[in-house]
Structures are given as structure tokens and as C-alpha cells.
Amino acid sequence: MAAIVVLGGGVCGLATGMVLARDGNDVLVLEQHSEPVPTSPTEAWDGWRRAGVAQFHQAHYLHPRSTRVLDAELPDVRDALLAAGALRHDPLRNAPPTVGVLDRRPDDDRFVSVTARRPTLEQVVARSAEAEPRLRVERGVQVEGLATRQVDGAAHVTGVHTTTGRRVDADLVVDATGRRSPLPAWLQAAGARPPQTEATDSGFTYYTRFFRSRSGGLPPMRASMQTHVGTFSLLTLPGDCGTWSITLVVDSHDRPLKELRHEDAWTAVVAACPRHAHWLDGEPITGVLSMSGVLDRWTRAVVDGAPVVTGLVAVGDAWSCTNPSLGRGISMGLMQVACLRDVLRDGVDDGPQEFAERWDDRVESALTPWYRATLAVDRARLAEVRALREGQTPAPPEGRAALGPALGRAAAHDAELFRAMLEIAGCLALPPEVFSRPGLAERVMRVAGEHPPDAPPGPDRDQLLRLVAGATAS
Known about the structure:
Blueprint: E1 3-7, H1 11-22, E2 26-31, H2 41-47, H3 64-73, H4 75-83, E3 87-89, E4 113-115, H5 118-130, E5 135-139, E6 143-151, E7 154-162, E8 167-169, E9 172-175, H6 183-189, E10 196-201, E11 204-212, E12 226-229, E13 232-238, E14 243-251, H7 263-271, E15 283-284, E16 289-291, E17 295-300, E18 302-303, E19 306-307, E20 309-310, E21 312-314, E22 320-321, H8 329-346, H9 352-366, H10 368-389, H11 403-410, H12 415-425, H13 431-435, H14 440-450, H15 461-473
């Protein structure tokens, strides 16, 4: 089989290494940070910094799609997560009472996720990778560029160069270096044409605080995990070992709400949301952790129908990254890992260009639609928030764009539509697939029409600004 070098020892890089090693390949993972892997999730939470991973101590949730990939490809990692205190979360058990009776169906386990805080997830995955045959992980290795030669008019990657002058040869290099991937600069230095790239600031800032249960239980869900309240959103996510996070998500340009970085202002806003205030009834284990400047970014290594580089693929956030409040990054990355394994299986004898083209076809059909769908949700929400800030009534979506918001409202009153909403939210099915089912779109609009939107479950804009100003003044 192949000799594969994976750049980056995060979740997606190590998952790539394990999945490809189990398929008979010899895999070397090069991680730039030299910190050893902590021996326990507690040590990971308390002392593992993971410099360069901005979201390491931010809100985190593994969608059901992630768990389904772990079930199929890395069941031992799933079991290790559970042994470390990860939560097995079943959203059907938290359905609003207005949905009615939810009789259990044989396929309802697809909605169950195994989820944990990001440090716990990374520690468990890293420890599992260390024990994987045919996989070596070297930490503290800085890669400074690509080894290339020209094949069929494209730069063909044959390995990488490290800052110590070492050359590491490979049949395939996998870029899993995350949101700050240096790949574009490396390709330029190698004389390759630039890949297609889209990059814009997502426009959101996140203010997160973590809590631990005083009693061992988790707060009851009285609203969806992500709830929009006028010009801010609330994200309440259960975690491992009786912990959870609460995140306030705001427009990065909303200057008055920058005060949410202060605990008093942050707490006042959460406490003013009646369906979420009880999430404060725990032991705080962090202050307010802020994150901004997060890019929505997508790259494609095929330009005008021809690959700009062969012998190299990008996975996870190195390929695309989006607003983390939808929590799709790990799910999309793990889906991509399974796709890569399948493309390698199907094309072991392909030439470099044929492999690159087949990889591009698979990613464009299976993954890019998820990126586009996520971007559409982000842009619609940001436009809504900015209209409300200006005192305007947001323009209602029309046509197919109206189905998503309508489903969010109708799902609270119809068991079939509640499952449909969970499929989309859990990365199990794309919106066009769900809405194309016979009669479903019509059912969504009918049920939504019977149930007008509820009042936002929290302060309006004027009340919000008074809360923030009052907390700051005191």
C-alpha cells in the first residue's frame, strides 16, 4: 500500500492516520507542537494549551454524523471516549412536549451522539493514535515546505521538508494543519498555480463559559441547543463528566455587546433568558472565553478543470472551515477522512492526475454542499441580526429559502418534522435531500403556518443594551 505523511496532529489529522493505517498504509503524522499528550482528560483540560487551536477551549459538540463515522471506522475511539466520561446524548429524549408522543423507531439511534469537550476529545484521540500499529506520530516537527516535481503540468508533491533540513518522502501528503494552513504559501513557493479560495470573516464573536454540575446531572433542555434571541444567539451544549458550556454568539461589529467579555454582563444576559437561565445553576470552571476573527474559508485544488497540485490532499479545516456555532467542523472532517480512504482503495493504481481528479469529484459531491449549506445559514442569520440592530424588520425568506426557518418552527409541533430537523442539524442529511421527500415541504409550510413564531425567549434589543450597560456600570 502507500506511504502517507499527515501534517497536523489534531482530531482530523490523527483520525486520518488511524483510518488509513487500518487500511494497510504506512502513516506518519507530523505535529508541529512538541507538548506531550496528557495522561488523562482532566490533565488535558487543566494544562493542555494546544497553541494555534483557537477553539480548543471553546464550546464543542460532536454531531450524530461524527458518531456514525466513529461507529463504522473507529469504534474503539468511541468506546474510549465513553470510558473517559463522554456523554451519550439522545435529542429525541429532549423533544419539546408540543411534539406529542415519539414512539421509538428502529433507526432512531442514528440521532444519538457521543460528545465531549474539545480537550477530552483530543486527548482520547491522541492516546488512541499512539497505540495504532502502522502509525507513527512525531511531535515537535516543523514543516517548512513541499518537495515537488512537475507531472502532467502540475506540481506533484513527493514529500515535505522540515525546518531541520530533513526530507520526508511520501506517496501522498495529507494537509490537516487546520484553519491556519500554510498550504497556499507552500504551493506558491513550489511554483504551482494558486488553488481556488474563498475566505471571509464569519462575522461572529463567541463568549463562552463552562460549568460543572453540583449534583452530577445536566440541566434539562428547555430550548434547542442553539436559540436565536434577537441580536444574539444562545448555545447550550452538554459535555463530558457532568460539564456543559453556555455561549453567547453576537455580531462581531456590535460594539455594545463587546462588554459580554465581562462576567457580570454575560451572566445578566443569560439570566434574562427564561428557557436558559437554569444553565447557570452549576459551578463555573472558567471565566468568559472570547473568540472572534473566525474565517469562513473553502479551497479547491482543481482550477479550470485541471489540478494545480497532485500527491497532496487537504482535509478538515485545512480544506474548509466555517462558523463553529453550527458545530459541523469535526463531522465534515471525519466524513472526509472516510472519503479519502475509499478513494485510495478505488484508485491504488491511478496516476497522480487521475487520483487528484477523482478526489476532487468526491469532495465536491459529498462535502462541498455541506460547506455551502452552512454558509447560507450563517449569512441569513448575520443579515437578520444586522437588520434588527438597525431597527428594521428582517425581510422574510422566500421560496426554498423559507423552508429552513419554517422547519425550525414546525418541528416543535410534529414528530415527523422534528426528526427531519434533527437529520439536518446532526449532519445526517442535507436540506435539499430532506425537503425533496414527497409531501415534506408542503407539510412543513402547512404546520408552520398553523403556529406563528413565538416571541423571542429573552430580552429585546433595548432590554439587552440596558442589561449590559447596567451590569458594566455596577
